[in-house]
Amino acid sequence: MSGDIRVTKKALLGIALGAIIVAITGVLLGNWFVGWRAEADEAEIFSKHFDRLGTLRKGMQPPAVELTDLDGNVVSLRDIVAGKNTVILLLSIGCDPCTDAVERWRDFKDDLPPDLHVIGINNGDCTGVSEYIAETKMPYPVYCDADHSLPLNYDMNQFPSIMGISQNGTIAFLGPGVFAGFTPQDAMELIQSR
């Protein structure tokens, strides 16, 4: 009969292979899109909504606290950041999310804009901080809040947290957590917008 359609094994194999390729491509593109969208949403939420941390707000001066460097010298946070675009990672050694934040920002070291400085502030004294720096290979200076001034005086009690200070001496951004999609370039854009 001339109206019969013959389906060969080769045709079935081609159809099946085509369906598999389309399915795999769809899954890969779907996963990529979901990840991309999540990172974009996270960065947008951070830039638009993280304008407070404890009693501090965007546009204020950084906290007036005294910190200790690893040599035992007492230094003012305002003196440390004076005239510099600075990202502050607020940490507590021994906190797994804090270590994740250190590792993420450590990996950014070579990509930092030249006029962006990064420091860490440990919530507590400097006991064990040198070992923590060596273990995490943190390439940034770390200061210690031995008196717990930030949590006690400014209600900053979520670790890790992040704060950006512009060179004009005001807080450009701050918030709890350190987001995976948030890069030094994002930080610099927010700092320069102040």
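Second entry:
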Amino acid sequence: PDFPPNKAPSFRAPEGTGGPDGLSGDDPFIMQADGKGWLYTPKGMLDGPLPTHYEPQESPVQNPLYAQQSNPARRVFPRKDNLWSPSGDQPGADVYPFVFTTYRLTEHHTAGGMSRFLPYLSELQPEFFCEVSPELAQERGLEPGGWATIVSARTAIEARVLVTERMTPLVIRGRTVHQVGLPYHWGVGSAAVVSGDAANDLLGVALDPNVQIQESKAGSCDIVPGRRPTGESLLRFVAEYQSRAGATVMTGNELRTGHPQSVPDTAPSTHPRGRPRPAQPVLRQHRGPGRQHVAPRRVRRAEQRPHRAGARVGSPARPARDADRARLVDSHGDARGARRGAPRRSGGPRSHGHRRARRALADGLRRVQALHARRVPRRLPDRVALPDRVRHRRGAGRRVQRV
């Protein structure tokens, strides 16, 4: 419910009053669980507790408040196909001097994936366009109704030019910054009534730290008259801009401005032999070109631990864990025997093949428990009960999958 307009600011609710009636006269917000609006966020935010201003992941404007340019808690992905232009006062920022922003049109629904297939709506907005101010059109030689190429550090697109007073130039710290407006309803589609380049192609991938939403509303660009190149010429065109700006994989990906060591965990690393290596430990289940086992060190030790024929798996100092493993191994062994129609063996010496299967399965259990700090559950489901039966090659990955 809305805040009562006739409640005086000096009003204080009786103690114990709940709901909207318990709000004081100077508490006109009901957006949080306690019935108040929060300026200080005590919990739930990774970049709190107080709101502040950060520039986008890439921006031709220096942060006017302090030296930290962008949100230090943002998630970035340094990749060759996800380059960023220099920002603020960095060298090369003038190669992409303008700001592009994306928005929605009334005549199109959502991202245009539905409306551009409908002739009634496509007729109202038939072609992809960009909005520029008269000042920017005069500075860059753009003609109303003509073609323009908009280029970012990722790619370049083409659009018709719409010169309008709505795109007012901004004056920031004595410098004029022009904006380029791009509706995002167009894209490819063989059956679409209208088509055109997609504005979202200009965007890179950088995520908000709290809800993992990408920055898709602002970026740095340049705009020139004429249609964009195609094929290999387009790649050379974009690469020439990247070279002039000095854009590399780590450009704009320093989480703390001025601290080159504050690179994210996803920064690319290199194996001593020159092969790329994942930044996080991964248990590889298949061998292949350029792949390797990079599990934690304790898992490597478990792999290399020798097993004697007939020896008990585990350590005598931990009989409870060994008993759990033995029960798990026995339950899986009985399940396999029941499926194959073999009778359950009540006693007597085990065969050498059965002991080898027990050792292999216990070794796989040790790997899983090394990878998961909370160990594995006591009751493991039968492989037949799993929704997807994945076949693996022989070796470590197959045993782990079986566990």
